[in-house]
Amino acid sequence: MTYFSTMYRNEELYKSKNILAPMVRVGTLPMRILSLKYGADLVYTEELIDWKFLKSIRVENKTLQTVDYIDPTDGTIIFRTSGIEKEKVIVQLGTCDPNRALKVAKMIEKDVAGIDINMGCPKEFSLKGGMGAALLTQPEKAKNILKTLVDNISIPITCKIRVFQCIEETINLVNELVSSGISAIAIHGRTKVERPQHSNRNEVIKFISNKINIPVIANGGSREIETYDDILKFRELCGASSVMIARAAEANCSIFCKEGKKPLDDVISDYLKLCIEYDNSPSNTKYCVQNMLKELQETPRGKKFLECQTLEQICAIWNLGEYCRQKQIEFQSKGMIGRREVCPDMFSPVRKKLRTDDVTEHKCAFIRVNYMSDPELPKSKLIAHCNKLKTKPPKYETICKDKLFRSIVTFDGKRYSSNYWEKNKRFAEQGAALACIYSLGLVEKKELVENGSILE
Ligand SMILES: Cc1cc2nc3c(=O)[nH]c(=O)nc-3n(C[C@H](O)[C@H](O)[C@H](O)COP(=O)(O)O)c2cc1C
Q: Left, alpha or beta for 181 (phi > 0: left; psi -120 to 50: alpha)?
C-alpha cells in the first residue's frame, strides 16, 4: 500500500508540467527562480558531476537564505539552492557509477525535489567518462544506477535520454530504464550525433508515450516554440505528459508565462535583480544575459555590456547599479559566508591587510576597447605624467577576492582606486591608474562619461 501511494505521488510531480530543461551554466539559481516566477512548474539544474558534489561541503547561507554546496579547495559554489524552489528543483547528475550517485543523492535529498540522471549528453567530456549518452549503449549499467537510487532515496528519480535511429532499439532501452522504478523519463527526440538544426523526432516520443505507463517529458521542440501556445502544441504532437524547454527558455524564460512573453529588457531586469539578491557570479550572469541578448550584443548598449566585468557594471546598464551596490554592502555587513570563511588560506595576510581608509575612490571602470594604443592607457598616461614632473613612479598594490581584483595606486604620497572590481590584476591596476589621472585632472569627466567608463 505504501509502495503504491509513494509511486503515485512521485509520478504526480511530473504530470502536465512545463519544465525548465537542464542547461550547463544557464540553469543556475537566478534563472531557475525566474522561470518558476514566470510559470514553469519544475526546474532542472545544469548537469552537476558526481565527484564535484562529493568533494563539496554543505553550508547554510543565512544572509541569502540559501543552501550552498561549496568546493572547499577554491570556494567555487557547485550548487546553490533556496527554500523557494525546494519542492520544484530537480538536480541533474552526471555519473557513471551507482555508488557515487547514491552518495551524492544522500547528501542532497533533503534539499531538492528530485534527482535526474543525464543519459543524453553527447560531449566528449561525458562520453570519455562513461557518462551522459555513453549510458545509452550500456542499458544494464544505466538501469543499475537508476535502481540503486530508486531503492535507497526518498525523492523521485528520473533520467533524460536521446533516441536511437531505430525505434525498436529506443523502446527496448526505455523499457529497461522504466523497469528500474523511475518516476518519469525525459526524451530528447534527436540521436546522439544529431544537432539542434536536425528535426526533432516528435513521432518517436509519441510512440513511446503510448507504450509506457510513466510520465514522458517531451524535449527538443525549442526551434518551433515561439509562444506559450507552441508549448501546448509540442506536448500534443508528442502525446507526452509534460514538456521540457531549453533554448527557448535560455533566450527568454518568460516563454513560461501563460499571458505571453515579456519584453526582453523586462526579463533581463528581473533576472539581474535575482542575480543581485542571490549574489550570482558576474561571469555566470554575463553569460546568461549574452544568451538573451544574442544579436543585440552588436548594438552600442550591447557593446558596453560586453565590456562589463563586475555585477555592478552589468546591473548599471539596466539601471540596477545602485541596488546592486546597496545589496553587496548589506551582504558584507551581515558577514556573509564567502570564500574567506570556507578556505582562509586563499587570503594571505598581505592581501587582507590592504589599507583602504585614506584612498581616494572614483567610480570609473577600465574598459579596454576605449584605448586604441598603449600610450593611451591610464597607466601609461600616469607614467608620462611622472616623467614630466620627475617624481617617483606610481606603486600598485592589489587585492583579490572571489576571483576579482582591485588595485590601489600610490602616487605623490596619495592613494587612489577605482571602486569597481576587475577580472584580472592588469585591469585592476589600469582601473586604479584611471581613478588617479581622473583625480589629477589629466582626463575629463565628459570623456569618461562618453566612453562609458563613468555611468551616469
Ligand atoms: C546551453 C545549453 C546547455 C545544455 N546543458 C545540458 C545539460 O546540462 N544536461 C542535459 O541533459 N542537456 C543539456 N542541454 C540540452 C537541453 O537540455 C535539451 O535537451 C536540448 O537543448 C533540446 O531541447 P530544446 O529544443 O528545448 O533546446 C543543454 C542545451 C543548451 C542549449
A: left
pLDDT recorded at residue 456:
56
pLDDT at 9: 57
233-271 in b/e form (b: 16+ CB < 10 A) is ebbebbbbbbbbbbbbbbbbbbbbbeeebbeeeebbebb
Cβ(452) – ligand 1 distance below 6 Å: no
To test the pocket of ligand 1, the residue of 18, 20, 23 to mutate (highest count of ligand atoms within 8 Å of its CB) is 23
**How far does residue 317's CA lie from ligand 1's centre (Å)?**
29
Q: Is the CB of 221 under 6 A from ligand 1?
A: yes
Q: Helices 300-307 and 282-293 sit at what angle, rounded to 10 degrees?
A: 160
C-alpha–C-alpha distance, residues 376 and 358, integer Å: 28
**Spans of the chain below 70 pLDDT:** 1-9, 337-356, 402, 455-456
6-23: b or e for each residue (b if 16 or more CB lie within 10 Å)?
A: eeeebbebbeebbbbbbb
CA of 197 to the centre of ligand 1 (A): 13
| C-alpha 94 to ligand 1 mean position (Å) | 13
Where in the chain are the domains? 2-262, 275-342, 347-456
Render pLDDT for 61-105 as a digit per residue (tens, 0 to 9). Answer: 999 999 999 998 878 899 999 999 999 999 999 999 999 999 999
Phi, psi of 360 (to 5 degrees): -85, 115
**What pLDDT, on a 0 to 100 scale, did the predictor assign at position 312?**
92
Q: What is the pLDDT of residue 10?
A: 84
Question: Which residue lies with its CA nearest to atom 23 of ligand 1?
Answer: 220
Residues known to be catalytic: 121
CATH (one of 1.10.287.70, 3.20.20.70, 3.40.50.740, 3.30.565.10) for 2-262: 3.20.20.70
The CATH code belonging to domain 347-456 is: 3.30.160.20
Long-range contacts of range 366-370, CB-CB < 8 Å, 24 or more positions apart? 366/418, 366/420, 366/422, 366/427, 366/428, 366/430, 366/431, 366/434, 366/453, 367/304, 367/307, 367/451, 367/452, 367/453, 368/307, 368/427, 369/303, 369/307, 370/451, 370/452, 370/453
- Residue 275 has a pLDDT of 97
